[in-house]
Amino acid sequence: DPRIGERLLDLLALGRSADEAMAQVVNETELIQYRQLSVVDANGGSTAFSGEQTMGSSDIARAPFVAAAGN
Predict the structure, then answer these.
(1) Residue 7: which of 42, 37, 43 has the closest Cα?
(2) pLDDT confidence band for 22 (50 / 70 / 90)
């Protein structure tokens, strides 16, 4: 759902950190447990999310200025 990425970017543009934006999107998005998301903010803050219903094995990785989610 491309609206999820747009929502993350909108929240970052409003000054939210990567963690804050991700928490809000996870909280407000229907069926989020089937999604994987990653985001990096302008200050290098990063986070990733992998829902419990993601198919197969999955993992996330994050460090300053980088975030990844994959399955």
Answers:
(1) 37
(2) very high
